Amino acid sequence: MALYVQKFGGTSVGSIERIEAVADKVIRYKEQGHDLVIVLSAMSGETNRLIDLAKQIDENPLAREMDVLVSTGEQVTISLLAMALTKRGYPARSYTGAQVKLLTDSVHTKARIRSIDDAKMRADLDKGRVVVVAGFQGVDEEGNITTLGRGGSDTSAVALAAALKADECQIYTDVDGVYTTDPRVVDKARRLESITFEEMLEMASLGSKVLQIRSVEFAGKYNVPLRVMSSFEDGPGTLITLEDEKVMEQPVVSGIAFNRDEAKLTIVGVADVPGVASKILGLISGANLEVDMIIQNIAEDKTTDFTFTVHRNDFKQAKELLEASALELGAREVTGDNTIAKVSIVGVGMRSHAGVAATMFKALADESINMQMISTSEIKISVVVDEKYLELAVRALHTAFGLDAEETEK
Amino acid sequence: MALYVQKFGGTSVGSIERIEAVADKVIRYKEQGHDLVIVLSAMSGETNRLIDLAKQIDENPLAREMDVLVSTGEQVTISLLAMALTKRGYPARSYTGAQVKLLTDSVHTKARIRSIDDAKMRADLDKGRVVVVAGFQGVDEEGNITTLGRGGSDTSAVALAAALKADECQIYTDVDGVYTTDPRVVDKARRLESITFEEMLEMASLGSKVLQIRSVEFAGKYNVPLRVMSSFEDGPGTLITLEDEKVMEQPVVSGIAFNRDEAKLTIVGVADVPGVASKILGLISGANLEVDMIIQNIAEDKTTDFTFTVHRNDFKQAKELLEASALELGAREVTGDNTIAKVSIVGVGMRSHAGVAATMFKALADESINMQMISTSEIKISVVVDEKYLELAVRALHTAFGLDAEETEK
Q1: Which residues in chain A touch residue B145, judged by CB atoms under 8 angstroms apart?
Q2: Size of interface A-B (CB pairs under 8 A)
Q3: How far is residue A366's CA from residue A380's CA, in Å, rounded to a whole number?
Q4: What distance in Å separates residue A213's CA from the closest CA in chain B?
């Protein structure tokens, strides 16, 4: 008998039939004797419908009032699920964010959680009730309704699990777990039994489709075991957990992440003196553009090349900014490329294994794929390649690090 | 400069365009220097949409969860109006029932108001903000969301006006005031400048279309000047007020009310001994049927006839109940008629004027309309007539008591 916090997203509660299916799923756990706190999103489409109403009135509606408006979405689903559970003979009670005093700061539409009062939920669980909580929303010190931003329901679930010291926080999604890489790119991609919080964060490009990154950080910080599971089929999903719990069976590389959202910019031939890099990045950040990878080569002839990547949508603006200031920066030239892709190998096992980079680079070289940039962190190695080689690179690395599913599993 | 509480119903906020029209109307009052607290219903149709979702899950959904569900309707409209006002340069803040601590008992779906905390609203008004409050909803001592029942937004508005000691509570509807009688029946019906709370209550058959009776009782109890006005056109509406404020110009009869919702039942020839009436009514109330008028004639031959009216929908059930017990009650016969109508003259002026009943009965006699039952209260005389004479009776009385609009007004 355990205490589980289970979160169901908008697709899982997108219709009355789906809500009833969630009730049936919840009851299966309840029948096993578990205590359950269910966290729900709004019905899929509902949040957009509400935002559209607001936009008809004001293109930039008041953030405080947006939170009052969109928080109604989850309030609808929690009441409906509580009805469906009770109808089936399993007493349930719904709570809004305000009602469980999910206290946040006052940054409307992207508030951060400060604390949760678990008294009411505990009392309900003690009485055998299923507790149903509205995700995504909270309340500030003044009693104003706040929301946590898109996808914030995952964060609500993790925060509730932390406050209640739940045995597991289960995030139900439309995929059955976290994969070694995107199965649409590599058909031998495997579901991972488990992955560490750090790896999950580094797998952002995959993970962002499965879990909101903030909820993973939150789960790591408060040591909440997090499990990604399918709403629509049974199965163990993927457990996201602390490193030491899985160290025995630790593979070197857990997964291959990638994205096509970046573009590369190079300032050629700038003076190799202190302050140049900060001037260049100052230009970019001054325009509120975000930089991902940054590389500066060793100087030759007292000048150097400075290369970084930005989001592909920001490429044009960043290039124009640099070109306008190139002379001032003493640069010879500004070059750019928005047909690149980033491929990363991720794994806490790298820490204790030498030669991982060598294996990676050899696998790419064997396929004659040129690496344009390289960046490393403790548990990740990323390379930038021409985007036309993306799939080839991901498949080669997936095989090289032994991630391919066995034929018999197919 | 005054403090007004203004309530707009579901039709008045039924679309984005309508909400923007309400914003414009509110701003006209604000421009005159008034302080404003706006109370809103849900968009017309929305409450039914939500109830329908619940009914798909459970024909008799949990009352607590129904309140969580349907209270989202007003939460949507208050946020949208606050946006529309702010967009127009008039700062506004929305509050749910829970946020202004509109405290109620715990009788979900038909809760009664206990108190309101006006601190936040006062602070906003002091800062020049328009306050926008969700009607129809409150919160109990435990923090559970409650609702006041259909039409409860009127009651919310009156309660807020009482708590804030507002100068006037203005109820915006789709009619431009309270009429001497239904204009669809009498084309010379006039809008009343004012009417007393008691008269308004007695005019229930008209008033119920304009105002929720409970809100009128509440306004009378707390002496809140209440004004019924049109959402769609300008005009003074009808002020509902205390008797002494209008005594100088008091007409004898303020209005003619009527309804076709009743049916008549008579038990013929029951023993004229104590306890018979209570046995008969006990049968009816035991089946949860409500009785309106009750008449017992003087006994002849130690038996009497006992007549009462019930709602027309309950006629069949009530008649069957009586017939089954007729022998036991010692009755000769049970007769009934569900083609009757009740016509009432209402006016506080009756108290100080003799001969009102005589005038009424003569007016009906002049039209050869037979009165089947008569019932009087301090400020009302009601008669039951064959329903085919209803319109004729109402017109005759409207003329007899000098209520007809002058030709020049037409």
Answers
A1: 96, 99
A2: 103
A3: 21
A4: 30
Domain regions of chain A by residue span: 3-173, 245-410
The alpha carbon of residue B79 is apart from the nearest alpha carbon of chain A, in Å, by 5
pTM of the model: 0.82
Mean pLDDT in chain A? Answer: 90
Q: Does domain A3-173 bear CATH number 3.40.1160.10? A: yes
Q: Regarding beta strands A226-230 and A262-271, do their DSSP bridges make them parallel or antiparallel, or are they unpaired?
A: unpaired
DSSP letter for A366, please.
H
Show residues of chain A in contact with B124, CB under 8 Å: none
Query: What's the CATH class of domain A245-410?
Result: alpha beta
Alpha carbon B92 to its chain's center:
30
Number of Cβ within a 10 Å radius of residue B365? 12
Angle, CA B351 vertex, CA B347 and CA B353 arms, to 5°: 95
Superfamily of domain B3-249: Acetylglutamate kinase-like (3.40.1160.10)
CB spacing of A57 vs B145 below 8 angstroms = no
Residues from chain B contacting residue A96 (CB–CB below 8 Å): 68, 145
- Residue A344 phi, psi (nearest 5): -130, 140
In order of B2, B39, B128, B229, the CA distances from B27 in angstroms are 14, 15, 12, 16
Which residues of chain B have a CB within 8 Å of the CB of A99? 143-145
Does position B248 have pLDDT exceeding 70, yes or no?
no
Residue A277: what pLDDT?
Answer: 79
Interface pTM (ipTM) of the complex?
0.81
Q: B19, B52, B69, B88: best mutation site toward chain A, by most A Cβ within 10 Å?
A: B69
pLDDT in tens, A319-362: 999 998 888 888 888 999 999 999 999 998 887 777 888 999 99
